[in-house]
Amino acid sequence: MLRLLKLLAALAGRSFHSRRDLLLENLALRQQLAVLKERHPQPRFAVSDKLFWVMLRRFWPGWKRALVLVQPETVVGWHRAGFKLYWTWLSRKRARPGRRPTGKELRELIFRMVAENPTWGAPRIHGELKMLGFDLSERTVLRWMRKAPRSPEPAKRWMAFLNNHREAIAAMDFFTVPTLTFGVLHCFFVIAHDRRRILHSNVTRHPTSAWVAQQLREAFPGNATPGYLIFDRATNFNEEIVSMVKSFGIMPKRTSFRSPWQNGVAERFVGNCRRDLLDHVIVLNERHLKRLMTEYVRYYHDDRTHLGLDKETPAGRAAAGLSSGGKVIAMPRLGGLHHRYDLAA
């Protein structure tokens, strides 16, 4: 009796369906029946079967009522997998995003123009390439110019100059030191190339050109002047400083842009000072930093051995002759950060 009532209810429901819904439901049931007949006892949906249900889901809202063999979530998964394959195919066909790559021959041509015309900038090289029919932007030319291999000849000539005139060369530079309460302090120094001696050093909060001029007067009193003075292109080393250096009878030598290696002796002193001292202390104020730098310069001259001086000191520390049974004593320097070792008297 209950089964009869269910059949009557289903018949009544179907009577209110449109002819289109009945046809689609009939088609869905027939498709599943065909799968059962061909794949018995383990029915599997082929690609064409999955595509049928994906399309039926899109065009018929009542597709779930006719689905028997799989869950509705499975059909949704087929739909998503189809979209994934579709967009993968589209991405493969689309053009590559971003700027057009620069060919190897064009890069080598830019490098050649840079090497053959050292005074040319990006606009000149871009103009020549444009005349040759190459279609690229000036910004791209500039980007590849920065990657051009540099000729080693200028560096070799500069190193030969430093080696041949080191007795007559000095260098000056600044480096910054953060403090606990007074912000950043600027440490100025002048170093001689021959024995790596610090000719002068001082500390300030305001490194103006007038202050630098006074430091140079103190660094080169009387006739004790080198033949050349190397310095970078900092704003406080302006034309006023250049004129003053020339008035001392010193030939000024500015380093090139972004070339700290050309002032390597000064840069090496800055690195040594940081590693030996400043990385291990907290600078309180300007007076504290002056005291630390005075002690470090003394240690740097008298005690610290240098590889560039065949492991001697700038001040010419005498080597002690080791005698049998001699006792070696340690003398602390820079508050115990470093030590000097000598034989006991």
Amount of beta strand: 5-15%
Main pleated-sheet profile: 5 strands, mixed
Q: Give Rg in angstroms.
A: 41 Å
Q: Please state the second-level CATH architecture of the largest domain.
A: 2-Layer Sandwich
Proportion of helical residues:
40-55%
Overall 3D form: elongated
Class by SSE composition: alpha/beta
Number of helices: 12
Number of strands: 7
| Main sheet strand line-up | 3-2-1-4-5
Tell me the CATH topology of the largest domain: Nucleotidyltransferase, domain 5
What does this structure look like?
This protein is α/β, with parallel strands linked by helices and 345 residues long. Helix 6 (122-131) packs across helix 7 (138-145). The longest helix has 22 residues, at 72-93. Strand 2 (184-192) and strand 3 (198-204) form a beta hairpin. The protein has 12 helices and 7 strands. The protein has a 5-stranded mixed sheet, with helices on both faces. Strands 6-7 form a two-stranded antiparallel sheet. It has 3 domains: 24-93; 104-149; 170-309, Nucleotidyltransferase, domain 5.
Q: What is the fold's blueprint, element by element?
A:
Layout lengths: L1 H14 L3 H21 L7 H13 L12 H22 L10 H13 L5 H10 L6 H8 L6 H13 L4 E10 L5 E9 L5 E7 L4 H11 L8 E4 L7 H9 L3 E4 L9 H13 L9 H17 L25 E6 L4 E6 L2
Parallel strand pairs: 1-4, 4-5
Antiparallel strand pairs: 1-2, 2-3, 6-7
